[in-house]
Amino acid sequence: MSENATKKIVLTGGGSAGHVTPNIALIPALKKAGYEIYYIGSYTGIEKKLIEDYNIPYFGIATGKLRRYFDPKNFSDPFRVLKGFTEAVKLLKKIKPDIVFSKGGFVSVPVVRAAGILKIPYIVHESDMTPGLANKLSMSGAKKICCNFPETMRLLPAEKAILTGTPIREELGMGSAEEGKKLCGFTDDKPVLMVIGGSLGAQSVNETVRYALPRLLPNFNIVHICGKEKMDNLKLTVPGYKQFEYVKAELKDIFAMADIVVSRAGANSICELLALKKPNILIPLSTKSSRGDQMLNARSFEQQGFSLVIDNDDLDEDILVETIEDLFERRDIFIDNMSKSNLHSATNTIVKLIEEEIQK
């Protein structure tokens, strides 16, 4: 393409926030690089709501989940995927993008398959240690496959795999600890423990933290982002303990004031902790309630010296309190290890890959 031509990119990905937030993190850098940005997601998925704030054209397509287990919808969803593919072909013909960037999730499969048919190059990003099914179905035609973990590289085609890390929203690093303390009503100088369990919360983590409050509050102020409808109304007035169902703009200030963090081990969440250099304890979802990707993510971060890990099945008040105390004592070691990571410039790395691909 000529240097003066308008550059166009389609972002796709959805089904969960984790398949959308890295795309959102790329938007400012892509705009700065001169791209017209379009988003293709599902008609009603979380991606539609999340993208609304960013003033970029959004297009919905039909989507169906690709399951490895029996479900009556397995008989109807292939037709929805086929319809989504047809819709994606029409949209890409209309938009005429130079490239597609896919963050995965089932809505992305029809989009990248349509891009492949139309000879539009596409790049895929895999957040977890082991590729999810949607990305597995997308990899054969991808020009590059970005990933977060060194261990993932051996599971990908060597000529396509790039260890980039995950794009992190720039504003997360621009918070104010003072604003965070005002928001939470913390007035003393005790260190701050942040507990976050993902957008839906983490019931086992929430309960254990609350059992442990009498042992933790003498030494820490605690801010607890506990998930929708997971507030404990009996503890709304406990000094030094502040609960939120969820936060948006305030998250940057809460991160800024947090000395240590207890978190689930979703790939985007832990990459945010790495980027912000927050010493952390990861409590991954077990294989009873997930495909096990959080356990693999957590173990990788533990081996790299970024995190301590508590298995969800082992979680109790004693283990939680002891691990928090251990982490706080050794927090400088974890900060130093995270500072040495080379995965802090994921946004720039990925935008550079996109630029290189459209100039071929």
TrEMBL record:
Localization per record: Cell membrane
Top-level taxonomic group: Bacteria
GO CC term (a single one): plasma membrane
Catalysed reactions, semicolon-separated: di-trans,octa-cis-undecaprenyl diphospho-N-acetyl-alpha-D-muramoyl-L-alanyl-D-glutamyl-meso-2,6-diaminopimeloyl-D-alanyl-D-alanine + UDP-N-acetyl-alpha-D-glucosamine = di-trans,octa-cis-undecaprenyl diphospho-[N-acetyl-alpha-D-glucosaminyl-(1->4)]-N-acetyl-alpha-D-muramoyl-L-alanyl-D-glutamyl-meso-2,6-diaminopimeloyl-D-alanyl-D-alanine + UDP + H(+)
Residues annotated as domain Glycosyl transferase family 28 C-terminal: 192-348
Sorted UniProt keywords: Cell cycle, Cell division, Cell membrane, Cell shape, Cell wall biogenesis/degradation, Glycosyltransferase, Membrane, Peptidoglycan synthesis, Transferase
One Pfam family from the record: Glyco_transf_28
Listed pathway(s): Cell wall biogenesis; peptidoglycan biosynthesis
GO biological process: carbohydrate metabolic process; cell division; cell wall organization; peptidoglycan biosynthetic process; regulation of cell shape
Chain residues that bind UDP-N-acetyl-alpha-D-glucosamine: S16, A17, G18, R169, S199, Q294
Gene3D superfamilies in the cross-refs: Glycogen Phosphorylase B
Domain Glycosyltransferase family 28 N-terminal: 9-145
GO MF annotation list: UDP-N-acetyl-D-glucosamine:N-acetylmuramoyl-L-alanyl-D-glutamyl-meso-2,6-diaminopimelyl-D-alanyl-D-alanine-diphosphoundecaprenol 4-beta-N-acetylglucosaminlytransferase activity; undecaprenyldiphospho-muramoylpentapeptide beta-N-acetylglucosaminyltransferase activity
Membrane disposition: Peripheral membrane protein
Task performed by this protein: Cell wall formation. Catalyzes the transfer of a GlcNAc subunit on undecaprenyl-pyrophosphoryl-MurNAc-pentapeptide (lipid intermediate I) to form undecaprenyl-pyrophosphoryl-MurNAc-(pentapeptide)GlcNAc (lipid intermediate II).
Family (UniProt): Belongs to the glycosyltransferase 28 family. MurG subfamily.
Protein name, per record: UDP-N-acetylglucosamine--N-acetylmuramyl-(pentapeptide) pyrophosphoryl-undecaprenol N-acetylglucosamine transferase
